[in-house]
Design goal:
By secondary structure, this protein is mostly helical. Helices cover about 70% and strands about 5% of the residues. Helix 6 (about 275-300) crosses helix 7.
Length: about 500
């Protein structure tokens, strides 16, 4: 049974397999033919579309080429027009240049002709001038040099008046502006530098607890007072003044030592020669300390830095030095401040001005102990301590011994004069005052043409009345300057002296 089934299956397979294969083959062939026909159709359509696209692109390309060609034609036309216009301009420029060249040639010829004519005229004028000069010399009987000399003399007399007028006007303008500016600066400076105007005296007064102390100061047979006077060099005046002893002496340093020593003796109560000697030594030590402190105070007050300690001590020593009753230390501080303020106002170096102002009278601390003027001593001291050359020059020039090298040195001169000449700063003896007035009048009277002279305003002005028939208005100006120069050269004085020349002409007639 099984075998039959297998046989049957095999027979069926043998019959149906070839039949299926045949059917599948036919179906595949029909599909291939359909695909080939579809592919042919697609290819044909693609060819048609490609042909259409090609035609469209060719048309677009032709249109773009045509447009570009038209644009190029327009641009070429424009360029041709510009080139033609430029050619026309070039032609016009060439024509203009040719015309200018021709014009320059004509002008050059005309100029040559004019120069030739001018040269001929110049020669003719030279000949005419020579003939005229010869004729003038023949008529006048004078040579050219003689005529020039006469003409120059007349011109000189005329120009003298003109020069005097110009000098007067210029001096007036300069003085007005300079005096105004100087007054402003000096007024501002003095206003900022207010100082004590009290002059110092040559005596000191020591108060006593009672009048019995006078006898103890005198001592047995006057030995105490003699010892004190010998050691200090100061005179003790013991009179009827109640409870006071007067110390008299021109050296303030010694007077201060004597005052301190006497006060210590009175306070101690034991007064005898040995104690006096001890107290005098202590007083000297105390004065030395005061000198050091005063020097440091002056340096600090004026703002001067870097000074040698020995110079600081010398500055402090000026506290006990006076000039015409004016304390030299206060004067030096004042000069330093005045010079500094003026330097600041004028835009100069205030450090140099204040340093030179503080040191300008440093020689007065040693002039009792050394030979020479205080200026010479001060210069030597500053050179010894290697001070700045500009400072040394300002110190050396503050009394006019040498020419100032800087404006700051001139300011120190001005500050010194201001500090010394302000009211109450110094005492002047009557004899010296009279001598100065006499010297002023003597200088004025020595000039030819002066009728009378008067020293007025405490010697601050000299008035000269001149003879009008001998001195002209122009000569007055020259005389005033000459008198001022003589006064500057021959006299020493604080501040300035005004020279006032007066000329008066009167015409008198009577109506009958």
């Amino acid at each position: 049974m099984v075998i039959a089934i297998v046989v049957t299956f095999l027979i069926s397979s043998a019959v149906f397999i070839p039949v299926g294969i045949t059917i599948r083959k036919r179906t595949a062939e029909s599909k291939i033919k359909g695909a080939e026909s579809e592919a042919s159709r697609i290819i044909e359509n693609a060819k048609k579309e490609a042909e259409n696209v090609k035609k469209e692109e060719l048309l677009k390309a032709k249109e773009e080429i045509l447009q570009i060609r038209n644009d190029l034609d327009e641009e070429i036309k424009e360029r041709r027009g510009e080139v033609q216009l430029q050619e026309k301009r070039n032609i016009q420029k060439e024509e203009n240049l040719e015309r200018r060249a021709e014009s320059f040639e004509r002008r050059e010829k005309d100029l040559e002709k004019t120069m030739q004519d001018a040269e001929k005229k110049r020669k003719n004028l030279d000949e005419l001038y020579t003939r005229q000069m010869q004729e003038l010399q023949r008529i006048s009987g004078l040579s050219t040099d003689e005529a020039k000399e006469i003409l120059l003399e007349k011109l000189d007399s005329k120009l003298t008046d003109e020069k005097a007028t110009l000098i007067k006007e210029a001096e007036k303008q300069i003085k007005e502006s300079a005096n105004k500016k100087a007054r402003e600066i000096l007024g501002y400076t003095i206003q900022k530098c207010a100082a004590d105007h009290t002059s110092e005296t040559t005596v000191s007064v020591v108060s006593l607890p009672n009048d019995d102390m006078k006898g103890r100061i005198i001592g047995r047979e006057g030995r105490n007072i003699k010892t004190l006077e010998t050691l200090t060099g100061i005179d003790l005046i013991i009179d009827d003044t109640p409870e006071a002893v007067i110390l008299s002496g021109f050296d303030p340093l010694r007077r201060e030592v004597a005052r301190i020593a006497l006060e210590k003796l009175i306070e101690d109560g034991r007064i005898h020669p040995a104690k006096i000697e001890e107290m005098v030594e202590k007083a000297k030590e105390e004065v030395e300390e005061i000198i050091k402190e005063e020097g440091e105070r002056a340096v600090l007050e004026t703002g001067v830095h870097g000074l040698n300690p020995d110079l600081v001590k010398l500055i402090g020593k000026l506290k006990y030095r006076t000039s015409y009753g004016q304390n030299v230390l206060n004067h030096s501080i004042e000069v330093s401040n005045l010079a500094r303020i003026m330097a600041e106002e004028l835009g100069l170096d205030p450090k140099i001005a204040r340093r030179a102002g503080l040191l300008h009278d440093i020689g007065k601390a040693l002039d009792h102990d050394m030979e020479g003027t205080h200026v010479e001593i001060g210069v030597d001291v500053l050179k010894k301590y290697k001070e700045n050359d500009l400072i040394i020059n300002a110190v050396q020039a503050h009394h006019g011994d040498v020419e100032p090298k800087t404006v700051e040195a001139v300011l120190v001169q001005a500050a010194d004069a201001i500090s010394a000449s302000r009211p109450g700063a110094r005492r002047e003896t009557l004899e010296a005052y009279i001598k100065r007035l006499e010297k002023l009048e003597e200088i004025a009277d020595s000039f030819e043409g002066v009728d009378k002279s008067y020293a007025v305003q405490a010697g601050r002005e000299i008035r000269l009345v001149v003879k009008p028939e001998k001195i002209s208005d122009s000569q007055m100006i020259v005389m005033a300057r000459d008198v001022a120069k003589r006064v500057e050269d021959e006299m020493e004085y604080p501040g300035q002296i005004k020279v006032n020349v007066i000329r008066e002409t009167r015409a008198i007639e009577y109506a009958k």
